[in-house]
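PT: before anyone asks, these are the final sequences, not the draft ones from last week. 841 residues across everything. Please model them as a single complex and drop the result in this thread when it's through.
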Amino acid sequence: MKPIIEFKDYTFKYRSQTEPTLRDINLSIYPGEKVLIVGPSGSGKSTLAHCINGLAPASFRGDVQGTLRVKDTDPAEAGIFGMSKIVGTVLQDTDGQFIGLTVAEDIAFALENDCVEQGEMFDRVKKVADVVDVRKLLDHAPTELSGGQKQRVSMAGVMVDDVDILLFDEPLANLDPATGKRAIDLIDQIRKNRNATVVIIEHRLEDVLYREVDRIIVIGEGRVVADASPDELLCGDVLGQEGIREPLYITALKHAGCTITPQTHPAHIDTIDLKPYKEQVKAWFETVKLSEKTPLPETALEILDLDFAYISGKPVLRDIRMKVAKGEMLAIVGKNGAGKSTLSNLICGFVNPDNGEIRLNDENIGGLSIKERGERIGLVMQNPNQMISKPMIYDEVALGLRVRGVPEEEVQERVYRTLKICGLYPFRNWPVSALSFGQKKRVTIASILVMDPDILILDEPTAGQDYRHYTEIMEFLKKINEEQGITIIMITHDMHLMLEYTDRSVVIADGKLLADDTPARVLTDDNIAERAYLKKTSLYDLAVRCGIEDPSAFVERFIYYERQVR
Amino acid sequence: MARLLTYSDKDTWIHRLSGVTKLLFFLLWSVAGMLTYDTRVLLTMLVISLIMYKLSKTEWRQVGTVFKFILFFLCLNLLTIFAISPYQGTEIYGTKTEIVHLFWHYTLTREQLFYEFNIMLKYFTVIPVVLIFIVTTNPSEFAASLNRIGISYRAGYAVAIALRYVPDVQSDFTKIRHAQEARGIEMSSKASLYKRLKSMAAIIFPLIFSSMDRIDVVGNAMELRGFGKNKKRTWYSGKALTMNDYLVMAFVVIFCIGAMAVTFHDGSRFYNPFV
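LR: through. Structure below.
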């Protein structure tokens, strides 16, 4: 068979860079294949996608060597418009790529640009809306849709054009685990029904592998490092070396000392043949002993019977009761729109509760202004660009102190100290614009830490970060938690974060507190997972399938072991 | 706030009119309202405007804030006219009927009152039409109709897409403001105006930067789906002109010609009840 996408000795260098981003790529993808491309940030995997859909070199200028053929067309010659008939691209920002004022208009966008007659457009939009199940939403505005629905609309918007290749650029980045799972399901269905070629770029490997993938291509430093079936790839060490997180059950098997072979089909936890590994896993489970955790006695934050509604009669939060201990690292989890952000808004005083009390160090803070609370409870937003307002790092970190009239000598002393804690001291005289995303995130954390708050609240601290950056940010937070004794509350739907870095998770679903327990127990409970749009961890399935009677204890021990070896 | 002065989807015959019709009506109506000082014409226009406002089922909460804002400028305008030229009315109408002497060289005359009453009428004939135009015209349909009368679709689409992202930018703004307030930047009325203006920078810069990120994404998304490929494009929400459209256009053209004829038949733009 003739490949539909074929790279031959392909090298691509951005005009603005001295080194090529892609080097000597040789890669063939065949019609009807479903291929997953993984690699850490900056490995060139997004550039690869841009070369396929024509954004590079048309929009992102650069020099090309070697050849690339996509359905017998050279994307560099055909340009973005020429390629848009062959390749449909779904971008990772479901919000930003929603162009129309309503769902129907957004789906029709490509047709409009092709001068399709209005009557025909109505028909085609309806048909494709049925495929992704958004028919009932056709008249809705984007603000009325959930993240998952927006993504369905984006898919419809590229499928309306009958493209041969569907290209997904990090489709899971902004979705909660359950919605992500459904997205992967939908992609799989579409491929089967349309017989389209599907290319998915994503670093959440385990989530994509939820449905069959033909091949995984690993990109590292601009080169193809591996090109193999999932079964083969999961047996080797390539993923670990390239900084990509393997599925958790694979890690557990490796910890247990198993040698995984492709013959056992390790690509799915449901289908993997565990016979050769069972006894080893059980034995390992017995050997890992948990250390006794001393409970943290003092309460930092207490929330009592909290009710809140933006519009009366439509409660967003009801009857929330929770305690956060001093020095704790806690996760607040739940699906998008469950009321997690509203809870943090209430704690920070951006909105006021209808009922109930918020107590900080045993003192009711209901009467304090936003500014007064800000000195004791620091909030770090998801996107650092939403916080940074000064061009220079030093000024940005000093901002909170200066507006409070702290004398300049003290400002300097405190800013320098904070910058040292955050590992930013060498950059103190740099402009913010010279920093990477992760470093900017640190600047925003520093600009809050400098005020010596008792509690730090972080909204999605690791969203959209690859494994290496994720680890970097989280280890940093763990460090300041341990060394500075600061209490950290994280709002997240990253299940790995919960498992690996927190001892307790508060689950909010439909405005109510659904659970307050260890992550191991939360992520092994069917009922909670379903109602809060989480996903049961594959470790649970592994434990059950290996005949371990207490699966959540297995998860607990796994986490403990992981923290020891890290 | 989010719903203030934005298109709201209701089903009245005014909503069903094409955007072009409404634009033409609005433009001609405003020109007529600006040119004429004839009180009889202005009063007729005012009555028609109010009837249309009623028919369009526009709710007060959609336009109230903006209306008050315009009212404030109207009052300012009227006072300024009196302060600068208190005898403008006397000059225009050629008589001087004093009501009361105020102070210095300021005397209130019937002519001046009548003149300023006319100015107020002008405002009130145009305001309802502007508001109706904004809240009854679907932006995408409007872009489509602009394109139909020969304006580049890129320009039309720029309007539509700006409206698409207004709610997103608004919510970004609120988020950023809260975060900056928590860092200690005072935005409430406790701070002086100068301080508040200075603190605005702390919100505006992050807002610009995060909006720039957004523009990049939107630009690529649009291009990937073929925007700008052809000289023309079709419109999903475009509307063909109906009988009603032609009737409304005919009405506004004839009305405006009539209004101008009545206004200018005696060579003056003003209706003079004083002689």
